[in-house]
Amino acid sequence: MIETFQIINEDFPWFFAALAAIFGAITGSFLNVCIYRIPEDRSTVFPGSRCACGKPIPFYHNIPVLSWIVLRGRASCCGARFSIRYPAIELLTAVLFLWVWLIYSPVVALIGMLFVAFLICATFIDLDHMIIPDRFSIGGMVLGVVLSFAFPALHGGEGLPLVAHVQSGLESIIGALVGAGLVYWVAVLGEIVFRKPAMGEGDVKFVGFIGAFCGWQGAVFAMFGGALVGSVVLLPYLLLARLFAGASEESDPATESPQDSETEDEAEHFGAQVPFGPMLAVAGLIYFLGFDRFVDAYFVEVAGVFGL
């Protein structure tokens, strides 16, 4: 069977690449369900997909990306609009699964697809609800350690089989501990300096999950790379918040309605809380999708400077 796979992959390399993209789109459709239902503590399997009006969505209207395009973003039963985020997540997952397949061996690629799926799900749940469910952080951390022991190729384990498995598993455990520990102490120091919680416990566990799959180098990069991503995203966000608040102050108080007051309250709190999980996920994804070679080389160079 393995020989057949290798022959097909050598003669028709596009075949399995196309399957990876299709599998990614299908997975993205399921992730949409998870993102919507998991925070509500509902089953992700039953009932099947339904429209907002309550009618079941037939399978031929539930084809990832394609159905949204054909139906022009509207439900076939009642004409209600479907958010563009649904096909966007499906397309994003398809592209990332294809990317992972193209740069890794099949075994590592399949593990990487699971890692990517966890990152996507946690990211959008954090954006919507400011939480990262433990099944993605703690569950993902444990899963990363188990897979690292079982498949040493995930961390580049070489040599005797038993040694490679143990080495890979230890790298995963160290990555989880370094990631969670680093974020924990950054959060503690941030709370001391700013006199309020700087990061949530979910972020601590989430970086531990990233470290379990990417090693301690990936965990460190996720932390500081996430901060950089956050700066790039957060500064324009806060600027918009300031402009939005300024526009609210210029309105005529005599014509203010309760709705205007609610809008002003929203403006006041706009940008007050920003989820850090998505930024950590983006940095972890950047590391896993090829930037690891540069990050690892940098750490080796730094270690050489200090004679380590």
Explained architecture:
This protein has 308 residues and is mainly alpha-helical. It has two domains: 1-103, no CATH class; 129-308, no CATH class. Helix content is 73%, strand content 0%. The chain is built from ten helices and no strands. It has helices spanning 2-11, 13-37, 66-70, 85-103, 106-129, 134-150, 161-194, 201-249, 258-269, 277-305. Helix 1 crosses helix 2, helix 4 runs antiparallel to helix 5 and helix 6 (134-150) runs antiparallel to helix 7. The longest helix has 49 residues, at 201-249.
Features:
single chain; 308 residues; mainly alpha; 2 domains; 10 helices
Tell the overall outline: globular
> What would you call the structural class?
mainly alpha
- For the record, give the distance between the C-alpha atoms at the N and C termini, rounded to a whole number: 45 Å
Please report the number of helical segments.
Answer: 10
Largest sheet: none
Strand content: under 5%
User: Radius of gyration from the CA trace?
Assistant: 22 Å
> Helical proportion?
over 70%
Mean pLDDT: 82
The H-and-E topology, N to C, reads as HHHHHHHHHH
Unreliable stretches, pLDDT < 50, 5 or more residues?
A: 247-271
Number of domains: 2
**Number of DSSP-assigned strands:** 0
